[in-house]
């Protein structure tokens, strides 16, 4: 599983959106999509679990703007 697949799957579950629809809206802000800070924490935890990461993701603020930037940030940190 790629980091992007894990991120979009976790976001889709949290936002109750099909991952394919979410990919079409990947440049919208996470806030506009309806993701709050608690939801973001759940997405990050789900992503960490899906990728089997031993430690928590520590992403820069600019990675938390949109689904695209979140997936890119996780990919950059994990190399997946």
Q: Any descriptors?
A:
single chain, 80 residues, mainly alpha, Non-ribosomal Peptide Synthetase Peptidyl Carrier Protein, Chain A, 4 helices, 57% helix, globular
Which CATH first-tier class would you pick? Mainly Alpha
**Might you state the CATH topology name?**
Non-ribosomal Peptide Synthetase Peptidyl Carrier Protein, Chain A
For the largest beta-sheet, the strand count, sense and barrel status come to: none
Distance between the termini: 8 Å
Question: Judging from the principal axes of the Cα atoms, what is the shape?
Answer: globular
Q: What letter string, H or E per element, gives the SSE order?
A: HHHH
Question: What CATH architecture do you see?
Answer: Orthogonal Bundle
Roughly what is the average pLDDT, rounded to an integer?
Answer: 96
Helix content: 55-70%
Radius of gyration: 11 Å
Give the number of helices: 4
Number of domain units: 1
Derived from helix and strand composition plus strand pairing, the structural class reads: mainly alpha
Number of strands: 0
What percentage of the residues does DSSP assign to strands (E)?
under 5%
Description:
- The chain has 80 residues and is an all-alpha fold.
- It has a single domain (3-78), classed as Non-ribosomal Peptide Synthetase Peptidyl Carrier Protein, Chain A (Orthogonal Bundle), CATH 1.10.1200.
- It contains 4 helices and no strands.
- The chain has helices at 3-15, 19-24, 37-51, 67-78.
- The longest helix is centred in the middle third of the chain and has 15 residues, at 37-51.
- The N and C termini lie close together (8 Å).
- The mean pLDDT is 96.
């Amino acid at each position: 599983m790629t980091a992007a697949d894990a991120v979009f799957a976790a976001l889709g579950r949290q936002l109750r959106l099909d991952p394919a629809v979410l990919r079409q809206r990947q440049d919208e802000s996470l806030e506009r999509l309806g993701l709050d800070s608690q939801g973001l924490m759940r997405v990050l935890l789900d992503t960490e679990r899906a990728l089997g990461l031993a430690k928590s993701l520590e992403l820069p603020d600019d990675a938390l703007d949109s689904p695209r930037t979140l997936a890119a940030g996780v990919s950059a940190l994990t190399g997946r």
